[in-house]
Design brief:
This protein is of the alpha/beta class and about 240 residues long. The protein has one domain (about 1-240): Bira Bifunctional Protein, Domain 2 (BirA Bifunctional Protein, domain 2), CATH 3.30.930. The chain contains five helices and twelve strands. The chain has helices spanning about 15-35, 75-80, 120-135, 205-210, 215-230; strands at about 1-10, 50-55, 60-65, 85-90, 95-100, 100-110, 140, 150, 160-170, 175-180, 200-205, 235-240. The strands form two sheets. Strands 1, 2, 6, 7, 8, 9, 10, 11 and 12 form a nine-stranded mixed β-sheet that branches. Strands 4-3-5 form a three-stranded mixed β-sheet, with no helix packed on it. Strand 9 and strand 10 (about 175-180) form a beta hairpin.
Length: about 240
């Protein structure tokens, strides 16, 4: 069983969290490259570290490398007036929103120590959220052609997306991850075309909206962490660096 160093960063600025996970991602890759160069020298091999960060961000919009800036519906001055930040980043996917009440998860795993299958990796991230919301009596789904976790429409209503996923891999080391709406302000999604999906039969939702009440986010974090560790067969250990 692999060990994963886990840290909850709490509420942290997006740029700070991005820099931090980039630093860890680079460290894992560098260690991996060094080990391959020293393949014939077992005494110089270093143990590969895996990391998992949880956090919440102040209101921010992020645009993936395959997205369109036209899906941001606010001007630069409007962003500033409303107190939002905006970043173009190197994950897959289009535009999304992060903010308070949302669990953002950043796994920094060397998949050579788990499995080298990016589709399976994304499915496992989805499955952790599907299993979590099932504990609250909600059935999460996947829809062909779309990533993330969805909830079936009710009485002809729209499909509801409760978790977005966008990842980046280099040398099979992962970064970025998932954004799970727990107590999110859903009005903030109205300023974008979420994930580039403009279909009227698809909207964004949250766990609290589905349940009709606010949910203790620390409780939800514990459940997500449990299901991630179960699916990936890792042991989470505290990370204090």
């Amino acid at each position: 069983m692999e060990k994963v160093q886990f840290k909850d960063l709490g509420r942290v600025a997006y740029a700070e969290a991005w820099d931090y996970q980039t630093q860890l991602h680079d460290e894992v890759k560098s260690r991996k490259i060094k080990n391959r160069r020293n393949r014939e020298k077992p005494e110089e091999q270093e143990a590969i570290q895996h990391y998992l960060l949880f956090c919440e961000h102040p209101p921010v919009y992020t645009l993936g490398k395959s997205g369109s800036v036209d899906h941001l519906l606010l001007s630069e001055s409007e962003l500033e007036a409303e107190g939002f930040s905006f970043f173009k980043i190197n994950r897959g996917g289009d535009i999304t929103y992060h903010g308070p009440g949302q669990i953002v998860g950043y796994p920094i795993f060397d998949l050579d120590h788990f499995f080298t299958d990016v589709h399976k990796y994304v499915r496992f991230l989805e499955e952790a959220v599907i299993r979590t919301i099932a504990e609250y009596g909600i059935e999460g789904k996947r829809f062909k052609g779309y990533t993330g976790v969805w909830i079936d429409p009710v009485s002809g209503g729209p499909k509801r997306k409760i978790c977005a996923i966008g990842v980046h891999l280099s040398r099979w080391v992962t970064m970025h991850g998932f954004a799970f709406n727990v107590n999110s302000n859903l009005d903030h999604f109205k300023n974008i075309v979420p994930c580039g999906i403009a279909d009227e039969d698809k909207v964004v939702t949250s766990l609290s909206k589905e349940l009709g009440e606010k949910v203790p986010i620390e409780e939800v974090k514990e459940r997500v962490l449990f299901h991630l560790s179960d699916l990936f067969s890792f042991k989470p250990i505290p990370f204090n660096s």
